Amino acid sequence: MKESQVEKYLHKKIEELGGTTRKFTSPGRVGVPDRICFLPNGRVIFVEVKTNSGKLSVRQEREIEQLRSFGAECRVVRGHNGVDLFVNGLVDNCDTCSKLQQASGDDNYLCKQCTNAKMNGLV
Predict the structure, then answer these.
(1) Residue (of 103, 113, 42) closest to 81 by Cα position
(2) Strand-pair category, 35-38 with 20-23
(3) Residue-number span of the structural domain to which 38 is assigned
(4) H helix intervals, 1-123
């Protein structure tokens, strides 16, 4: 799967939430995130899109860290599954997480799939 396909998928999923994305390019600046996501609640998130096996370049890592140091929200998503996990996190936690949180009384409790996804850098 190509990175451009993952970008299109991200755009589609954000539009389903009532938001939109824009391709982010910055002439003379290498390593900026691929997309800026604009959500209906005014939230703006910079997103670097990768394939499942894609790696961040050193310049991309530096750019993301710099944007974060200014208080910007930046995320890296990998593949369609990473997009789904990212988008689900914007709406709410997955159904399993919600049930576990309700049962445990801990709003931060994550299911095994979401925990693994975060640990493996999918979201």
Answers:
(1) 113
(2) antiparallel
(3) 3-91
(4) 3-16, 58-69, 79-91, 95-104, 112-119
Residues 11 and 64 in one domain: yes
- Contacts of residue 38, defined as CB under 8 A and 6 or more positions apart, other chains included, come to 14, 19, 20, 21, 22, 44
| pLDDT score recorded for residue 12 | 95
Residue 104 CB neighbours (<10 A): 10
Q: Amino acid identity, residue 66?
A: Q
Mean pLDDT of 74-101: 76
The answer to whether residues 68 and 53 belong to one domain is yes
Biggest distance spanned by C-alpha atoms of the chain: 51
- Give residue 79's Cα distance to chain centre: 10
